Amino acid sequence: MPARKKRKIGKMRGSRSCGTGNIKNKRGSGCRGGVGNAGLHKHKWSWITTNDPDRYGREGLKRKSVRVPVISLYQIESRATKGEKEISFKGKVLATGAIRQAVKVKALAWSARAQEKITAAGGEIAKLE
């Protein structure tokens, strides 16, 4: 078996600062630039570039998301009660809400449930050109 390693403090007794240089250097964490991850984006940046370069930054690309404008049936219903009988919309018609009036709707897209509700109320839906 290997010999047990003697602790350093036993050798350092009587040498005033026990191998730490100035006694101020042993107090707290001020001597080493903070505790833990402190300063990794500031004064310890050179440590990051050599030891952990993948810690910061993004990887890969992200597709641009397309937000389709939408209109719900309850919004179409409120416009129909104000007197509009033909509504055109550059977006998608969704089936949220109820519709009781026969309305002619023109849109770029619509859900199957929205089409069912509009035709059940006596209206019709067509593709916007």
Description:
- The chain is α/β, with parallel strands linked by helices.
- It has two domains: 21-55, no CATH class; 70-127, Ribosomal Protein L15, Chain: K, domain 2, CATH 3.100.10.
- The protein is built from four helices and four strands.
- The chain has helices at 8-12, 45-51, 73-81, 112-120; strands at 70-72, 86-94, 104-110, 124-127.
- Strands 1-2-3-4 form a four-stranded parallel sheet.
- The relative contact order is 0.10.
Structural class: alpha/beta
Number of H/I helices: 4
Note the overall shape. rod-shaped
* Tally of DSSP β-strands: 4
Query: Major sheet: size, sense and barrel closure?
Result: 4 strands, parallel
The CATH topology of the largest domain: Ribosomal Protein L15, Chain: K, domain 2
Top keywords for this entry?
129 residues, alpha/beta, Ribosomal Protein L15, Chain: K, domain 2, 2 domains
Q: How do you describe this structure in short?
A:
The chain has 129 residues and is of the alpha/beta class. It is built from four helices and four strands, in the order H-H-E-H-E-E-H-E.
Topology readout:
Elements: H1 8-12, H2 45-51, E1 70-72, H3 73-81, E2 86-94, E3 104-110, H4 112-120, E4 124-127
Parallel strand pairs: 1-2, 2-3, 3-4
